[in-house]
Amino acid sequence: MAVLKHLAIKKRDYGDIQRYLLFKCEEGTHKPIRDEAGRMIPRDFYIQDGLNCDPLTFDAECAELNTAFRKNQRKGEIMAHHYIISFDPKDATENGLTPQRAHGMSMEFANQFFAGHQALVVTHADGNNGSGNIHTHIVINSLRKESVECKPFMETRRDCLAGFKNHLTDKLLHRMLEELQEMCEREHLHTVDVNQPSERNVTDPEYHAQRRGQREKDRINARIRADGYEPVHPNFETVKQQMRDAIGKAAMEAKDEAEFMRILTKQHNINTQLKSGRYSFTHPKREKPITGRSLGSAYQREVILERIAANVSVKPEQRPEFATLPRVFLIPSNLRLVVDLQTCVKAQQSRAYARKVELSNLQRMARTVAWIQENGIGTMDKLASAKKEIDKRHQQMSSRLKQSESDLRLLNRKIRHVGRYYSNHKVYARYEQAGDKTRFRAERRSEIEAYEESARELKRLFPDGNYPSPKALKSAKAALMEQRDKLRTELKPLASQKRNLDIVWKNVRSILGTGHSIMAEQRSEPPRNGPRRREWEL
Fold first, then answer.
1. What residues are paired with 25 via a beta bridge?
2. 337 pLDDT band (50/70/90 cuts)?
3. Which of the four, 55, 85, 132, 325, has the lowest number of CB atoms within 10 Å?
């Protein structure tokens, strides 16, 4: 999936962002890294282009334009807008995405939404934190250089005139996300439904606070480990994440809403308020409450009440819908992979750590053997058969879920264009009957162009010319969303079961050693009244 991120830049020096995009910088401070001679070190790889400017003189041309129009002269004004398009790391390996291809898509995106602006477009292939995902930076001067033709997504007349500043709204940002997802779908890249709210709403400030806190935590943990101790809490959590964890635990334990609020207050010291049908939570480290919607869709009152109701309705003797599977899939476990001491660098460097890993491996092997015995698996053939079955079911259900999500994206597109078509139909009919079509079109340009764009798209989507009503499409969307949610619910336990079997499979191979076959092993015994073969038993 492609992610779009926006940052407003208020620094008066356009050269800072230009140096960050073209040269290596320190993580966190974004200060350029210099060599022994004091020169900045260029990035290993990047592709750059300019829109309405030369990419090498982007900073000077932006300053010159601001002076000509006498704009962006006061302190605190938004000088530039910084957009980052990040593609899914799996696109490079699974869908053949290259930096050149990503750069071409980003240039198309910039020409569509930032026409008339001076823009610097730079594509990197290194990713953040060494993730390796391909991403593109688009930096535009907030002041428009040239007048352009008014487009449907522009809300006011000045949005297309030279000398006016860029007007970014939530509606326009959502339109950018939709267009980006359509481009990814066209290029057969991973996509996500932007109309569905996120279960965990992690904002950009929270993301960077988590990274800063984890860096500081790592430094403290390093000092603790240097003294020969192991830190109790090695990971840093923001206040919002602590609230999410506490709310999730309380929702799993509570039997009603009153008990849910009581658990949060007594066990986690989090005050809960219910106002206008919405929750707001106050952490002891925060003075201002935060709504469940800000934490994510999974922490809103409706979802929490559904989880509490599930606690009451599900009885211990009841089994889930996948109870028809073999018994091997229904037993929860705390299985972990066995660590290979031959490839563990830290174990090679520290004998004490190696002994600790050896004890841990014995425990993990014991859990694996116990799990196998509890599930009645006596041979490698049975284990291989169980693994093959769960892999097949997981693949089939994943394919069904992926197809359902693809159908839902197509349906959302139909709903959008059908709605625009019918809402602007009367305006277009008046335009066709108008005596002065040029004047009428200039006055109602956005509505007419929106109608024409939707009409062209609907002809492609419905070649027979029979356009469904928005009500029928929304009913179909509700049914499709219900089907998708059901598949997601069924896939979660299946993925957990697949993970357990994968761990057991790898641990058994590690226990047997590299000299054993991954299939059922046969042992030979001395002939006793003829040759006998005994299958290996666990």
1. 32
2. low
3. 132
Nearest Cα to Cα of residue 84 among 123, 29, 31, 28? 123
411: which residues sit within 8 A by CB, 6+ positions away? 473, 476, 477, 480
Tokens of 508: 């058994």
| 475: its two tokens | 């009913």
Q: Tell whether domain 3-186 is in CATH 3.30.70.
A: no
Distance separating alpha carbons of residues 371 and 235, to the nearest angstrom: 30
Domain-wise residue ranges, the chain: 3-186, 204-318, 379-538
> With contact defined as beta carbons under 8 Å apart, do 401 and 484 qualify?
yes
User: What are the phi and psi torsion angles at 504 (to 5°)?
Assistant: -60, -45
Q: Which two three-digit tokens encode residue 327?
A: 């018994």
CA distances from 379 to 79, 256, 391 (A): 69, 47, 19
d(CA 427, CA 460): 22
Which residues lie closer than 8 Å to 255 by C-beta, 6 or more apart?
Answer: 308, 311, 312
CA distance 204 to 533: 64
Per-residue pLDDT tens over the stretch 246-272? 998 888 888 888 888 889 888 888 888
165 touches 143 (CB < 8 A) = yes
In tens, the pLDDT along 273-288 reads: 888 888 889 988 888 8
pTM given for the model: 0.50
* pLDDT value at residue 215: 83
How confident is the prediction for the chain on average, in pLDDT? 80
Q: Could you tell me the two tokens for 259?
A: 């008990």
Tokens 């250089």 belong to 145
483 in Cβ contact with 404 (< 8 Å): yes
Please say whether the beta carbons of 6 and 81 come within 8 A: yes
- Name residue 295's amino acid: L
Phi, psi of 319 (to 5 degrees): -115, 150
Name residue, tokens 């658990």: 263
Residue 285 CB-density burial (10 A; 0-12 exposed, 13-18 middle, 19+ buried): exposed
